[in-house]
Amino acid sequence: MPDLLLELRSEEIPARMQAKAAGDLKKLVTDALVDAGLTYEGAKEFFTPRRLTLNIKGLTARSADVREERKGPRVGAPEKALAGFLRGAGLSDIAEAKIQSDPKKGDFYVAVIEKPGRDAQAIIRDVMPGIIRNFPWPKSMRWGAASAEPGSLRWVRPLQSIVCTFGTEIEETEVIDFEIDGIVASNITRGHRFHAPEPFTVKRFDDYAAGLEKACVILDAERRKHIIRDDAANLAFANGLDVVEDEGLLDEVAGLVEYPQVLLGEFEQDFLQIPDEITRLTIKTNQKCFVTRKHGDDKLTNKFILVANIAATDGGREICHGNGKVVRARLSDALHFWHVDQRDLPDMDGLTASAEKFGLDLKKPLDQRMAKLDALNVTFHAKLGSQGERVARIRALAAKLAPIVGADAAAVDRAVVLAKADLRTEAVGEFPELQGLMGRKYAVLQGESDDVAAAVEEHYKPLGPSDVVPRSKVSLTVALADKLDTLTGFWSIDEKPTGSGDPYALRRAALGVIRIILERGVRLPLKSVIANTLQAPFVPPEGWGGGFIGDTMFEYFVALSGGGYGVGEPDRKAVVSTDIEALANDLLSFFHDRFKVYLRDMGARYDLIDAVLSPDADDLETVARRVEALTKFLDSEDGQNLLAGEKRAGQLLAAEEKKKTRVAEKVDPTLFETDAEKALYEAIVSASAKAREASVKEDYFSAMEALSALRAPVDTFFEEVLVNADDEAVRANRLALLAMIREATGTVADFSKLSG
Q1: Is the bond preceding 541 in cis, omega lying within 30 degrees of 0?
Q2: DALR anticodon binding domain location, by residue (predicted)?
Q3: Contact 132/180 with Cβ under 8 angstroms?
Q4: In the chain, is it the N or the C terminus that has fewer CB atoms within a 10 Å radius of its CB?
């Protein structure tokens, strides 16, 4: 069967777009061919900075003939119905249709539509221009004289040539010669821009890839990555160094070169006084180079690995020199930022009020930056106030969380007021991804405690499912306060995540709170914390002209959003209280959704989570422990016994409740008629007491073990007792006995939600 080779060669494609573009090309072409009736054995996409390539193996040479019978209206139907049928079937006269009979519906018209198959070459020639013209680039451009014409070709960079060949391995291939804006598909391509710019002819993929290899182009991106990784490691090792690995940078660099040549650059030792994180980001961001360390040392060296796209005749000396000049210039800027951030600000006079508000020491550089952040009234969000106001909110919330977490209150307060200060530093202004980390370094330099400095960095954590959770109690407290303030604030202004977007990373914030609670064992009553945060007294900032009427944080958020409560004082407070309750419930429900996702990712069964997680459950650490205990218990014989017994009792009780059969409010032992009733009652009372006692001690596994003793008396009860007795009082009493079983097991889980 024939193969198809397609290459789209252009000017340099941005590295970040290459992999997706190659995947899009594969999908668009294969989908179009399949829709046209062709099949194929396999397809593989490739990409370099200057080309997208697709190799389709085993493509059918021709689409199959198609015969379709299309049912039409009844014989004698109105003219309009017949005309519509003829148009849809492509017939010119009703005489061209057949008449078929149906015993029930009578005679009706049937059109027989026959479509002969088409050669694959014709199909490819038809579909390719549309795919290329409408290619889904994130950004595209027009170029040349043709760009002035409406409908001219748009591409990510100027498209230079198209290769499109079709044929079997043993026959001569055929060029499928479609044309787009003067570019005619051919079997001619070019290699490396400098080392092998001459055109050469290709037939099929094997000789195409081999020809590119000779022309100094490594087609496979993964192979380019391996070459860069291995050559960099070998070159570094030969100089007594280790490369600091960076998979993202490796992907990017592999998308910048077709013929990777690894070299070693150098900068002055004086720049090593800059923190390693700044050095690494400077060299990575501006020059796409890798930094190095000495063997067994964490400190960076003044050597860096660069990847060129040409094999220079001088061994790369000029390339290294040129890259070194740029790196030195960038590091000079970084060194300047580093020194400036440790100096006093030039305009200290206007910072006194802010310093007093937050208890800042204006002799310290980081304190000055926090005072500046507040004095400038830098906006956090238009509807949530300034960064200074946000720090004040986090500070108040952290003070309430500190005793819950068990953190030192003074350290927590100090960490909160410094946590956002580095947002006004030059280093973070240049590299926003260093926020927190630079704050920690500057905090250490000005003599802050280890706990405070760590909290300044770690209060952003965890930043995702794979990021670490803070360990110190001070860091945990500040991190919780920061995330809970974010969530309550955006919930108050009704800026919640949607199915298509989460611009403020609220899902990540909620997951961060959940991971802190579960991985660090924090017992946090979420709903009450949320409600208390929104009900906290609030005094609007001096000079605020928003017409604020109210005395709670929630009312302030509403006012900032352009809303308000135009009712009398008693009515307003009642409405506000109701709104806060509804908002707290809604946010708790959001936490539950993220909590379920987290537990499922950890391997928990969805039905076990649902059985334990009630709508008002806000101690997620306890819920997680109950899910863990339930999972372990149901794997045992006792667990299966308890589940079977509860299911049997619960299903019968639910059926009777659905019929609205009366169930006694409580069991009356004087109405027992059998020993089985009495034995079950006594077993429930005993097991419930033991389960409650174990639950109080948070020994949920023992609570379930105690309840598992109900299986035998439940079975005996159903074997010897007719629940639906003729006597209405006896029947209601026996149903109440079953309700006691449900109530007893409900102390640990809702067994009706368990499968099995």
Answers
A1: no
A2: 648-743
A3: yes
A4: C
- 556 within 8 A of 540, measured Cβ to Cβ: yes
Give 123-160 pLDDT, tens digit per residue. 999 999 999 999 999 999 999 888 888 888 999 999 99
CA 278 to chain centre: 27
Burial class (CB in 10 A: 0-12, 13-18, 19+), 635: exposed
- Residue 567: predicted pLDDT: 66
Adjacent-strand bridge partners of 303: 266
Of 527, 528, 577, the closest CA to residue 552 belongs to: 577
Q: Does residue 754 contact residue 742 with C-beta atoms inside 8 Å?
A: no
H or E segment at 718?
helix 711-720
| Count of beta carbons in the 10 Å neighbourhood of residue 271 | 20
Residues of the chain with pLDDT under 50: none
pLDDT tens profile 310-319: 999 999 999 9
Q: Output the six-digit token pair for 173.
A: 């291939």
Task: For the sheet with 159-167, list strands across it.
Answer: 42-48, 51-57, 3-10, 159-167, 174-175
Q: Summarize pLDDT for 414-466 with one digit per residue, the tens.
A: 999 999 999 999 999 999 999 999 999 999 999 999 999 999 999 999 998 88
- Considering Cα of 117, then 122, then 124, then 130, what sign does the dihedral take? negative
Distances (CA, A) of 447 to 224, 277, 443, 483: 47, 21, 6, 27
For residue 257, give the nearest of 303, 311, 209, 211 by alpha carbon: 311
The sign of the torsion formed by the CA atoms of 635, 639, 644, 648 equals negative
Residue bearing tokens 């064992």: 521
Nearest to 287, CA basis, from 306, 273, 268: 306
Quote the crossing angle between the two packed helices 120-133 and 15-35, to the nearest 10°: 140
Confidence (pLDDT) at 546:
53
The torsion angle over the Cα atoms of residues 259, 261, 266 and 271, rounded to 10 degrees, is: 40
Q: What is the pLDDT of residue 544?
A: 57
Q: What is the pLDDT of residue 547?
A: 55
Return d(Cα 716, Cα 721) in angstroms, integer: 8
* Cα pseudo-dihedral 31, 36, 37, 40, rounded to 10: -40
